[in-house]
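seq/struct pair 1
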Amino acid sequence: MPCSRLLPMLLLAGTVLAGCTSKSEVFSGRTPEQVWTVMATVAQEPDYDNWILLENNVWVDSNYDRIEINRRIKRDFHDEGANAQRQIETIDMQFVLERTNPPAVTGTVRSRMIPVKAHAALDQFFAEMHQLLDPESVSGIDVVEMIELVPADPVDESSGE
């Protein structure tokens, strides 16, 4: 492949991996003050089931309704038939409260992460917010755990079975 064609492909790949992942949620029936308090609590006291929190650096900017988070988490991933692998993730996130009626929160992962993992980090944060705001309704919310993607075995479609 000529170098002139390879460079744009590399730039595109770099953009995909370095891009930000965002998600917004609306909190009907809540005041902006309630949502802000819960945002700050979840930022400062995260609750991970399958990860160990190594670092949690939080910067709360109440003048602009913004919270910056830098976290390091780890776990030992056990795959069937393989040795355990230590996984360490660094997550840089920002959450901004929009004082609308109803209030909304936009979260952005700014780390270089696989998009599935970035979405999982945002889902985890919002699920914790919902848990604090309405503990009885959380049973219907699916939280996507940060997982390692494993390539599937190729399927032979020519066998006709």
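seq/struct pair 2
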Amino acid sequence: MGQSTKIQEASPKEPKEKAGLLKKVWLFVKAQAKKFDNAVDGAASFFFKNYGKTRFMIAMSKKAQYLGLERLFEKGPKAFAYFFLFYLVRDTILYIIIPIYFAKWTSGN
């Protein structure tokens, strides 16, 4: 009982080196993403901040809210059709296709 046990300590350099490497990789990826976003005039960050909606979709959503769908259709049937097709494609990808592939990927089948 009189013996004291020593707990072996991990080298303090290993976690710092891994954290430093991950931080450098993250900073590089972040810088490249900002560079791309600047090249496309902020369109990439806008797209992600607004859950995949384009400026056109946001403008049409606002018009649909204050005009109503029937009056919006009467103002421009072509824009109305594009608006719903964009939403249909976006929502199909976000809420149907991605979850199916994610479920398949995580189930191991």
